Amino acid sequence: MATDDTHDEPQHHAHVDETIDDRETWARRRREGVPTGKNLLVVACMDERIPVEEALGLDLGDAQIYRNAGGKVTDDVIRSAALTTNFFDTDEIIVVNHTDCGMMSAPDDAVRDGLETQVGDLDEATIDPSLPALSLGDADVTEWVRMTDDIDDACAAQVEYLRESAFIPDDVMITGYVYEVESGELRRPGDRVAEEISERRT
Ligand SMILES: [Zn+2]
Q1: Quick one: which of 37, 123, 186, 200 could link to 177 by a disulfide (CB 3.0–4.6 Å)?
Q2: How far apart are CA 49 and CA 122, in angstroms?
Q3: Rounded to the nearest 10 degrees, how much is the dihedral formed by the CA atoms of 167, 55, 50, 88?
């Protein structure tokens, strides 16, 4: 970048040019095959209380982030994970579920009734407008919605689903965490330390 030797400071256009160059490089990342900073895909619940980047210590550009209701490994998570691990340099997936998830807020029957009221005949409903062949088949709609009984068990299960998927290479590292909305901390699924240390020893 040229600077004017007669001035102590570079002319301001140099700073502007640098900003433009940085932006162009950023925009060209995908064309040039630049992977995410941490070669990472995060699958997390869409709940607004989870600051995913902050909780995992991620900066802009570090990871691809997929958020859906419950942070569940649905067919579209498998699709996304398959693409990024096979055709991009992603070699790690982190699942983030959380306490007080809305997926634990209602029994299956209430969810089924609510959707039936909206949709009508659930057996005939299209779940993917561009892929009519993808249907619920014999599954109950609640298997599609995937309400949750226990968040730690659910988190461990999502990790297993990803590990077992034939679409995802075996050497991809897959880990799950439970984000505690009450403390703002992550824990490994099953590590309910607070409960253990808050009760009388038996
Ligand atoms: Zn949630």
Answers
A1: 186
A2: 31
A3: -30
For ion ligand 1, residues whose CB falls within 5 Å: 45, 47, 101
Order of strands, edge to edge, in the sheet holding 185-187?
63-68, 40-45, 92-98, 173-180, 185-187
Average pLDDT over residues 31-56: 96
Instruction: Measure 45 CA to ligand 1 centroid, in angstroms.
Output: 5
* Ligand 1 geometric centre to CA of 104 (Å): 8
For 36-106+147-196, CATH number out of 3.90.76.10, 3.40.50.12780, 3.40.1050.10, 3.90.226.10 equals: 3.40.1050.10
Ligand 1 centroid to Cα of residue 85, in Å, is 25
pTM: 0.88
| Rg of the chain over all Cα atoms, to the nearest angstrom | 22
* CA atoms 108, 109, 115, 121: torsion sign: positive
Q: Name the residue ranges covered by the structural domains of the chain.
A: 36-106+147-196
The model's pLDDT over 109-146, given as tens digits with 9 standing for 90+, comes to: 999 999 999 999 888 889 999 998 888 888 899 999 99
Handedness of CA 115, 120, 121, 124 (dihedral sign): negative
